[in-house]
Amino acid sequence: MKVKHQKSQTSRRKKQPAKASRDKWILRLYVAGKNLKSITALNNLKLICEEQLKGKFKIEVIDLLKHPQLARDNQILAVPTLVRKLPIPVRRIIGDLSDKERVLVGLDLIAYSGLNH
Q: Rounded CA gap, 82 and 61, in Å?
């Protein structure tokens, strides 16, 4: 009789989910001009994507000062806001993306582990 061993949450966290390696990711970062928060969010996003998604991602930066109608159309209430368009389901993260673990959980790249924040 074979026994299947289930991996704990912590061991799953260390491993990238399979979907990250095979799916094309489309991420939209909504910003309001080139300010410190916007630049920080974009830099943090690029680092995370290069580390976790290795060339399987596209980042679209949308400046709401240039296209204010997109804030209403896409239900953007705060900036910077990151929206994961693909893979579905759509997910949103608000802020400068400096808390890497929260971003990874928010993008569903790692499992939730009971963050202490």
A: 9
Q: Which helix (H) or strand (E) holds 40?
A: helix 36-52
79: domain CATH number is 3.40.30.10
pTM (2 d.p.): 0.78
The Cα 7–Cα 48 span in angstroms is 25
Domain count, the chain: 1
Sheet containing 25-31: which strands, arranged edge to edge? 57-63, 25-31, 81-86, 91-94
**Angle, alpha carbons 47-53-58 (nearest 5°):** 80
Residue 68 lies in a domain: yes
What pLDDT, on the 0 to 100 scale, is given for residue 16? Answer: 46
- Of the pLDDT bands very low, low, confident and very high (cuts 50, 70, 90), residue 1 is very low
